[in-house]
């Protein structure tokens, strides 16, 4: 128990929550946990939540870590939202840093984001999330669509943002006290279709409940987010765009189109046209990859819009949209 960190008077207490689900990510998961344990100053607690995979939980419990790491199993519905909610319930830090199981954080990540939260109006902060390509980065892949890989994309500027990106984000505990948990009707599961938007829905709900609060993007520190070879393909790219459209359709029904799509309007009218112009400019300079990136921008937008239209049409033709309510959080002993 000598490794247990004790709160420092006047300082925000901190917890790091890492959610995992697959043995296939064992190597990068261990790197993510080791990086979390090397934070300076260290977190008061580190919790690894295993999403309905008892074998993985047992494997983690038998491993020796350099610092105290608590391994727990998801007691909520399967999926990333449920795993995060379990992490919130079993931890006690005033500030919670959520990390993906394939995100290796900088040593100063926690300290950098906590500094942002020393301002009481800041509800949460997200760091830079850099792609760590397993293979060579495809020449056609546009920076504007790095969000399909859970990374910081071109067009996201430092300062206030509507929502955080889940791979490397810090949120005050009292946000959940006011708004409830992540919505289990949204968010990734082990299924093939990579749905999302649970962070966006939570942030919209939080700023409605706490209108004087804001979320911020602080890129001076960050995490390297592993990108496996099967995600560096046109198939995954278009599949992920389609799934984002479906997710945004669900979100717009839950939160209203105004807030759900506010950032997307600027993205479509400013970020994407600027990206296309850069692509064509590179083509004129003798770089064929510029044309490929411009094509990818158009294809990604079309796939996302198609997914959104399909999701809204499906909802209109069936029963009204409902999701699993965001439950109140009770500590788990």
Describe this structure in words.
This protein has 333 residues and is of the alpha/beta class. Helix content is 41%, strand content 18%. The chain is built from ten helices and nine strands. It has helices spanning 26-37, 54-61, 80-90, 109-117, 173-179, 198-209, 234-255, 257-260, 262-284, 289-317; strands at 14-20, 45-50, 70-73, 95-100, 103-105, 122-133, 159-161, 168-172, 214-227. Strands 1, 2, 3, 4, 5, 6, 7, 8 and 9 form a nine-stranded mixed sheet that branches. Helix 2 links the parallel strand 2 (45-50) and strand 3 (70-73). The longest helix is centred in the last third of the chain and has 29 residues, at 289-317. It is globular and about 55 Å long.
Return the string of H and E elements: EHEHEHEEHEEEHHEHHHH
Secondary structure category: alpha/beta
Name the overall outline: globular
Residues in β-strands, percent? 15-25%
Keywords: Membrane, Transmembrane, Transmembrane helix
Pfam families: Glycos_transf_2
Protein name: Glycosyltransferase family 2 protein
Organism: Rhizobium lentis
Task: Report a brief summary of the structure.
With 333 residues, the chain is an alpha/beta fold. It is built from ten helices and nine strands.
Secondary-structure topology with pairs:
Layout: E1 14-20, H1 26-37, E2 45-50, H2 54-61, E3 70-73, H3 80-90, E4 95-100, E5 103-105, H4 109-117, E6 122-133, E7 159-161, E8 168-172, H5 173-179, H6 198-209, E9 214-227, H7 234-255, H8 257-260, H9 262-284, H10 289-317
Parallel strand pairs: 1-2, 1-4, 2-3, 6-9
Antiparallel strand pairs: 4-8, 5-9, 6-8, 7-9
Helix pairs in contact: 5-6, 7-10, 9-10
């Amino acid at each position: 128990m000598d490794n247990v960190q004790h709160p420092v008077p006047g300082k925000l207490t901190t917890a790091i929550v890492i959610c995992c689900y697959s043995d296939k990510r064992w190597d990068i998961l261990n790197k993510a946990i080791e990086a979390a344990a090397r934070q300076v100053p260290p977190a008061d607690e580190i919790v690894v939540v295993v999403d309905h995979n008892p074998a993985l939980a047992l494997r983690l419990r038998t491993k020796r870590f350099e610092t105290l790491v608590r391994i727990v199993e998801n007691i909520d519905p399967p999926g990333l939202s449920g795993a995060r909610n379990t992490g919130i319930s079993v931890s006690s830090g005033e500030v919670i840093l959520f990390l993906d199981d394939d995100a290796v954080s900088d040593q100063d990540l926690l300290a950098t984001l906590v500094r942002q939260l020393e301002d009481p109006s800041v509800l949460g902060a997200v760091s830079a999330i850099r792609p760590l390509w397993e293979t060579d980065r495809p020449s056609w892949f546009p920076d504007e669509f790095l969000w399909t890989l859970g990374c910081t994309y071109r067009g996201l500027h430092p300062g206030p943002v509507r929502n955080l990106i889940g791979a490397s984000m810090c949120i005050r505990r009292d946000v959940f006290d006011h708004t409830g948990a992540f919505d289990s009707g949204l968010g990734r599961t082990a299924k093939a279709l990579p749905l999302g938007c649970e962070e966006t829905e939570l942030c919209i709900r939080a700023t409605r409940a706490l209108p004087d609060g804001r979320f911020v993007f602080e890129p001076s520190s960050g995490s390297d987010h592993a990108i496996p070879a099967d995600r560096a393909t046109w198939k995954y790219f278009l599949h992920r765009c389609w799934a984002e459209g479906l997710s945004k359709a669900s979100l717009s029904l839950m939160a209203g189109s105004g807030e759900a799509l506010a950032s997307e309007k600027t993205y479509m009218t400013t970020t994407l046209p600027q990206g296309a112009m850069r692509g064509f400019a590179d083509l004129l300079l003798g770089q064929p990859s510029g044309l490929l990136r411009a094509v990818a921008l158009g294809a990604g937008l079309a796939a996302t819009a198609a997914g959104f239209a399909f999701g809204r049409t499906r909802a209109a033709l069936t029963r009204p949209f409902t999701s699993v309510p965001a439950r109140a959080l009770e500590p788990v002993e």
